[in-house]
Amino acid sequence: MNTDNEVLIKVEKLHKRFGDTEVLKGINAEIRKGDVLVVVGASGSGKSTFLRCLNLLEEPSDGKIFFEGTDITDKSVNINLHRQKMGMVFQQFNLFPHMTVLKNMTIAPIKLLQMDKTTAEEKAMELLKKVGLQDRANAYPSQLSGGQKQRIAIVRALCMNPDVMLFDEPTSALDPEMVGEVLEVMKQLAKDGMTMVVVTHEMGFAREVASSVAFVDGGVIVEQSDPKSFFENPQNTRLKDFLSKVL
Amino acid sequence: MNEFFESISKSFTKTFITDDRWLQLLKGLGVTLEITFFATLIGIAVGFLIAIIRSTHDMTLGNKKCRKFSDYILKFLNFICNIYITVIRGTPAVIQLMIMYYVIFASSRNGIFSAILSFGLNSGAYVAEIVRSGIMSIDKGQSEASRSLGLNYTQTMIWVIIPQAIKNILPALGNEFIVLLKETSIAGYVALQDLTYVGNLIRSRTYEAFFPLIVVALIYLILVLILSALLKKLERRLRSNEH
Q1: ipTM of this complex prediction, to 2 decimal places
Q2: What interhelical angle do A146-158 and A176-191 show, nearest 10?
Q3: Chain A interface, mutation test: which of B71, B144, B147, B148, most A Cβ atoms within 10 Å?
């Protein structure tokens, strides 16, 4: 953990209810600049809901989320401005099917950052080069493989120069042989110092890249530690049980 | 045999040539096209407006309670839209047309204007439901991805949701315009001399039923064929954008 770095996201007593079911029951977390927090847990434990609360795709029922010092759960805050600084990658990629790869990547910077088209496209091409997809710039999403789509989705978010990247099970919808190429991009991103919150089932990724791993069970974080002690010396019995099943 | 041809040629002449009746038909066609064109524009405008209000209401409020002042406005607008759709879909177009002409515009008795407005508002209710179903058919992930980039609700609608929705609803929308074109044939009820009215007028003057009615039917058929072809072309162009 980079304990000296400034706190980027601070979550206090986060609750989320869907009707009568309480999915999140008081989550506290702190994410510092440069951290890679990997969130694991069984399906239905609330880990995706937690992630989606961070940029308010789900509206928290209770609790506070501070992003760069601002309480974004405050109704008077313009969430759109903060979302520009929080990139998000989804399980189902969610590329815009009616736009080319280049348009997918440049629409937000052009509309929101008032970037002119040439500058935005140059930046997009640079990012495409990084993930080895510069020759697909004018393709439509339906012409891409799953792994390619997800890599595009990652660089689309990066086009906005975010301060943090949220990953919601980015490899779960991929064919096994395509998981590697996406994880590779994420590893590179972590190496470049990007702050990341990753919900995933890829334990290898967690062990190798995470600065901290959190285990969510029953709507709370029951254990959080550095990857080494998380995987080799788990304390919580539910976590031990979970790890024995997935490892 | 000769007699047969002679009678056909006589009917034909009576129907189209005498008193320049072909010119009357042409003018009728003009009226039909004028009403259809402007009513379509009104229908699209009203339809999209209502669809956006209704789907915004369904997506953001749903069954939730109102919390802000703008929530109450949205709920009220949604309520008005629901009544509008219910009334328009629940009453015959010809009654709506006559109410527009004899009641609402009773003082001016402007037939063309009444008809355009009446057909436009009628079509709007149907277009609204088509567009709404198109908006609702777009995967939630699309709007989530757009919002996560920082685009606001309106920008998401304009750049991400509606372009995809239009592509999905184009066949249904085309169908609605075809129905609208043919529905204008009731314009004669408010003394408008549209294609159907002129055809019927010629029939009653000449006591010839076959030519005027068949020709009017053929003209409608050709119009619909042209409209279908244009829509198909548009559809293909939109699809080629995506593969």
Answers
A1: 0.92
A2: 20
A3: B148
